[in-house]
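Section 3.1: Structural characterization of target chains.
Under the original work plan, the team committed to producing a structural model for every single-chain target entering the pipeline before any wet-lab resources were allocated. The record below documents one such target. The sequence was received from the expression subgroup and is listed exactly as submitted; it comprises 265 residues.
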Amino acid sequence: MNKIRVMIVDDEPLARSGLRRMLTKDEELAVVAEAPDGRAALAVFKDQRPDLIFLDVQMPGMSGIQFLEQLPAGPRPIVIFTTAFDEYAIKAFDLHAVDYLLKPFSNRRFSAAVDRAKARHRVRHPAQINRQFDELMDYFRQQDARVATPPPTGLPDRIVVKADGALHFIEHADVVWIEGQGDYLKIHAGKNSVLIRDTLAGLAARLDATRFVRVHKSAIVNVEHVRKLKAIHYGDHALETSDGSAIRVGRAYRDKVASLITARH
């Protein structure tokens, strides 16, 4: 019996291991690949060409939707989307009859989604799968085009980040600074501080550039929380923020930091 080849794409290791554990119980399925983000998934997809993908919607760097847009030409896989909370995506999935799992999901809901995927795989109507896939991508492109131009009021007053299997809504005013820690970022926001998997460049694109400034290769600071800009040694400078942090200013960022802080104060 030819098994259905499955790939799991999710930035949370526990989510991937949980799905893998559930999938290996089914003798009709074979997990052939896993990936922690969209970019890694693209490389794996080209090698493995899975029949079925469990795809997280929100991932750092490249979202699940962006990953699908980058897939090479050819027969499209069956996709079961997984998401913690995304009303925008769920509306699209319901509209186009695409299956999804809302985290945390039950064994019963998982089994139902897998059974539907198996049925579609047995019927093997690639033209129908491709059409459904293309219609879904067209929907997302149309929605993205509508919001491509920021509204007159500018960027939202809060950021939405994914951590610990949930979405966190953090007010811009509460964010003191953002610290790069390898593949992760720590958002220092008092009691709302969280550790997320993202890049400084990626998060910076979603922030108000008049309020948040890159001060170092591993730090972004909210200038409204800056209390001092002081010289330390050998011409280096450091910022003191409202939470008592001392953040070194990279020499390449010094002039920009000084001018922006002066403008805001």
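The chain has a mean pLDDT of 82.
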